[in-house]
Amino acid sequence: MSPHPMPPGGLPSGEASRNFAPQIQPDLAGLYGRRAARLRTLAEGHDHADYLRLAARVAEVQASLVPEAGGSGPAGARAILQQGHLGFLLDRLIERLAPDVPAPVATHLAVLRGLPDEERLGAAQALTLGRFDAVPAAIAPFLWAALSLQRASAVRAAPVPGCGPAEHASCPACGSAPVASLILTGDRQGLRYLHCALCESAWHMVRAKCTNCGAAADLDYLSFDTAEATVRAECCGVCHGYLKVISLERDRQAEAVADDLATLALDHAVTAEGYQRTGFNPFALPA
Questions:
Q1: Which of 9, 39, 124, 196 has minimal Cβ neighbours within 10 Å of its Cβ?
Q2: For residue range 210-233, what is the model confidence (pLDDT) as tens digits?
Q3: Domains and CATH numbers, the chain
Q4: CB 206 within 8 A of CB 10
């Protein structure tokens, strides 16, 4: 692993600037479909192929449940948890996953299915508050998948909030942390957007600055490959935080959650260098 500098980049001129939007909310069914396909591609020959394929199946089920996710009501965490729809989505998720998963995973799904509503609600509240250690790691990603689907649907049913002039370290739509940042192509060529780990929104931040503290003076870009690697860790010498940056310019099939999950070995190496991750992956929630 070695540092590779990235040239500074802000909002470009021309076509990309004319299509600039401070926040993007991708179509959920399409997003989950692309994620599932990418995870299955990345699973080929991967050391953790079985888990990547399990994550792909979860994304496929999320896509199938989009029409049932609803979208009315406030998008805030407390409101969503009190609406009661989370339990329905969770049951539907478990019902569709159970026939396709290995026996140990099916056992964990049965445990989650059998939890009383009050315990499910308490676990969901713990996750939204970042108390990941309060929820067993074996069931947390499935609960998060249902919670994420509900939150993402609610966010898309509400007016897009104004981001204002300030850039955000956390999602302006729901307040959660990002999975990673993406360098886009097409009509937003070269723009960087952070992707929310919970509501699947994306929001703009200029390139070559720390997504956590905003510093630009002491950044390293670490990867196992070359300076042209699709996935690199953007590491800040000021706050000692890092977040991966994933370039669609280098691989148009890349996807934030999938490519981040498939490169967890990079996280271990960067953490060993003394940096702390400032976001998280929904399929690898912090312990």
A1: 9
A2: 999 999 999 999 998 777 899 999
A3: 2-25+171-277 (3.90.1670.10), 28-157 (3.90.1670.10)
A4: yes
